[in-house]
Write a structure and sequence with these properties.
mainly alpha
């Protein structure tokens, strides 16, 4: 829970710094891309199980 709180608080700081150098839509795309990659890494095994069970049917 503490790690999530730190990540959440840090994201505001990074958004503030990022908006000074990167355009808003580019920064949002970057955030969503990073979130996608992290989520994919965390749930890689589960995703493969689901995809393999779907392809068997």
């Amino acid at each position: 829970m503490a790690a999530i709180s730190v990540a959440w608080g840090t994201s505001y700081l990074l958004m503030k710094l990022g908006l000074n150098t990167i355009e808003p839509f580019t920064l949002m795309a970057l955030r969503f891309g990073i979130a996608f990659v992290i989520t994919y890494i965390i749930f890689f095994k589960r995703l493969n199980k689901v995809l393999s069970s779907l392809s068997k049917t």
